[in-house]
Amino acid sequence: MGQTDAAFDGYRAALADAGLLIPSGVPGVYGWSGAFEDVVERVDRYVTRMGADARAEVIRFPPVLRRADYERTGHIDALPHLVGSVHSFVGTDREHRQLLQLREAGADWTTALRPTDLVLTPAACYPLYPSAAGMLPESGRTVDLGSFVFRHEPSPDPTRLTMFRMREYVRLGTPAQALRHRDDWIARAQQMLAALGLDARPVLANDPFFGRGGRALATLQREDSLKYELVVPIVSDDAPTAVASSNYHLDHFSRPFGITTPDGRLAHTACVGFGLERVTLALFRAHGVHLGCWPAAVRRTLWP
């Protein structure tokens, strides 16, 4: 076992021993205790308070996306290893019996399932873009989103979850409006995390694009300074974990869905996203597993 794996195991065991984490037997999938959920909800409300001046539209989508809309986002081209497709049984009684026979034989009964029209949402903002097709108002739009999201990247790292909650503020508008949103939220998110006693710093980052072509995409993303992550030491001081990110998408999402500004040009979009479980895990790591021992200033911020 490497040093990193030992650190993952140690933090996961500490969370489980404290009753905060309930292992499911699948890497990256856990249950959480009432105390953990209380902090998640408090972090969620904190994000709402800190974003109140944006006067954002509040929209909530379920964590599934129409497959046809998903295909238009380009996610499958760049990040196929993260996708989760929803499959269901749609057969006859005879085919059901065949499925049961496969299961009883210890064979792969999932071959009897068929893909539905849905995929699991990879980011909270993805369902927004199909619904935003057409011309934006002069002032653009700012939207407050929140959802469970899915990414197929099982890991022994307890901060890398297969399904997790994401809160986002998305800006749709001119290039200047979108870029200002991205840059403002880098500074704001750092201040928010500092108020929680977290030593967060912004770093230039890239998405985990797939394959040889992905390396070129990652280089371009970094060269154009499109993505910044706010990283906090959780499992490792040497390899801090991203708990939030602030991203400028250019016209990547507006082009396939025909989102335009009033002058007829393609809109640009930007988003800030907070991983609610990751922020919560960072808080338990920084301040201990017993809420009563947390610094008074942090408690006042989350329990105003």
Describe the structure.
There is one protein chain. This protein is α+β, with helices and mostly antiparallel strands and 304 residues long. The protein has 2 domains: 3-84 and 122-302, BirA Bifunctional Protein, domain 2 (2-Layer Sandwich), CATH 3.30.930; 85-119, no CATH class. Helices cover 38% and strands 25% of the residues. It contains 11 helices and 14 strands. It has helices spanning 3-17, 34-50, 67-72, 75-78, 93-104, 128-131, 175-195, 211-223, 254-257, 276-287, 296-302; strands at residues 21-23, 30-32, 57-59, 64-66, 85-88, 114-120, 134-135, 141-150, 163-173, 201-204, 227-232, 241-250, 259-260, 268-275. Helix 2 packs across helix 10.
Topology:
Layout: H1 3-17, E1 21-23, E2 30-32, H2 34-50, E3 57-59, E4 64-66, H3 67-72, H4 75-78, E5 85-88, H5 93-104, E6 114-120, H6 128-131, E7 134-135, E8 141-150, E9 163-173, H7 175-195, E10 201-204, H8 211-223, E11 227-232, E12 241-250, H9 254-257, E13 259-260, E14 268-275, H10 276-287, H11 296-302
Helix pairs in contact: 2-10
CATH class of the largest domain: Alpha Beta
Number of helical runs? 11
CATH superfamily of the largest domain: Bira Bifunctional Protein, Domain 2
Form type = globular
Q: Briefly note the CATH topology name of the largest domain.
A: BirA Bifunctional Protein, domain 2
Largest sheet: 7 strands, mixed
Distance between the termini: 43 Å
Topology, number of strands: 14
* pLDDT averaged over residues: 96
DSSP helix fraction:
25-40%
DSSP strand content: 25-35%
Strand order of the largest sheet: 3-8-9-14-12-11-10
Low-confidence stretches: none
Order of helices and strands: HEEHEEHHEHEHEEEHEHEEHEEHH
Architecture (CATH level 2) name of the largest domain? 2-Layer Sandwich
User: What Rg, in angstroms, do the CA atoms define?
Assistant: 21 Å
Query: Would you tell me the structural class of the helices and strands?
Result: alpha+beta
